[in-house]
TrEMBL record:
Any Pfam family: Epimerase
Entry similarity comment: Belongs to the NAD(P)-dependent epimerase/dehydratase family.
Cross-referenced SUPFAM superfamilies: NAD(P)-binding Rossmann-fold domains
Coiled coil (UniProt feature): none
Protein name as annotated: NAD-dependent epimerase/dehydratase
Organism: Gemmatirosa kalamazoonensis
Length: 308
């Protein structure tokens, strides 16, 4: 099996590459930064084919997809309030870029394509662009005879998730706790998240694409709601941080006390029994990874989150 992962040097793209390599597949990584040395450092010498490509430049995609059995599209621009400050760039990357991937896959006659979407719960630029691309995926599947599978990823965590510049819950809390600071919680912290490990997202993405599934996008979380306050308490407990939390105004584009939890019954119907990493042990593994980071990296991340 020859799989191409677009954005394979990113956090979740890299997790998908790890999963594919563990299954013995031939993997090509398409990324604007996919220099051979970077791919060798991330995945091991010679384990993947490194292709310097960009979803904003369709010609690079058509060449990369030639002869592929599968394409996983994991590239994009992240952010909540961050993207509201640059809407045209978000549309260019997350919508037009996704269409370029679908067009190139159709031209190369790639049998199966995977596209990750997100829950549609907030009115912000990121959600709008992801939902629009999800709908284009359904359109291409219907009109071009392609098979494009989508999972709506809930709250990912795991080693290698970037500390910045986009603020994510576990990296930001880890950096703050490691510096003995109170964890910045938006609102009263009673909004819920559905935390799912990156390795689980990767495995389920590959499983769904290879199951032959044809149908609407499916929720992909553990189906277990946690309040943000509970996540903060777990991070503080791991690091022995007694500084507690400080409550901040809600970010633009997010609603107080949102209940976010995946309905995993349809995913279970498609794939059978589902298994997930244990929350406590996988969170500990993730936090240990952040504890191993260079102090300057933590301080830069804290500076970026303070400015956001």
């Amino acid at each position: 099996m020859h799989a191409v992962v677009v954005g394979g040097l990113g956090f979740l793209g890299g997790a998908v590459v790890d999963e594919l390599l563990a299954r013995g597949d031939a993997v090509s990584v398409v990324d604007p930064h996919a220099a051979r040395i970077r791919c060798d450092e991330r995945f091991g010498p010679g384990r993947v084919r490194a292709l310097d490509g960009d979803i904003l430049h369709p010609a690079t995609l058509r060449d990369a997809f030639h002869g592929a059995d599968e394409v996983y599209h994991l590239a994009g621009r992240l952010g909540t309030s961050e993207l509201d400050d640059d809407v045209p760039a978000a549309i260019a990357t997350n919508v037009t870029g996704a269409v370029h991937v679908f067009e190139a896959a159709a031209a190369a006659r790639v049998p199966s394509v995977f596209y990750p979407s997100k829950p549609n719960v907030w009115l912000n630029t990121y959600t709008i662009t992801k939902v629009a691309a999800e709908q284009f995926a359904e359109l291409y599947a219907a009109q071009r005879g392609m098979r494009i599978c989508s999972l709506r990823y809930f709250n990912a965590y795991g080693p290698r998730q970037a500390l910045g510049p986009v603020r994510k819950i576990v990296p930001t809390f880890a950096a703050q706790a490691l510096r003995g600071l109170p964890l910045g919680v938006f609102g009263d912290g009673e909004q819920t998240v559905d935390m799912i490990h990156s390795a689980d997202l990767a495995r389920l993405s590959v499983d769904l694409l290879r199951s032959g599934y044809r149908g609407p996008p499916l929720d992909c979380g553990r189906g277990v709601p946690l309040t943000v306050n509970e996540v903060a308490a777990a991070v503080n407990a791991y690091f022995g941080n007694r500084a507690g939390v400080r409550h901040l105004p809600m970010r633009r584009g997010e609603t107080p006390r949102t209940t976010l939890v995946a309905d995993i019954a349809p995913l279970r119907a498609a794939l059978g029994t589902l298994r997930f990493a244990d929350w406590d042990s996988s969170l500990a593994e993730t936090l240990a990874w952040y504890a191993s980071r260079d102090a300057r990296e933590l301080d830069l991340a804290l500076g970026a989150s303070s400015a956001a």
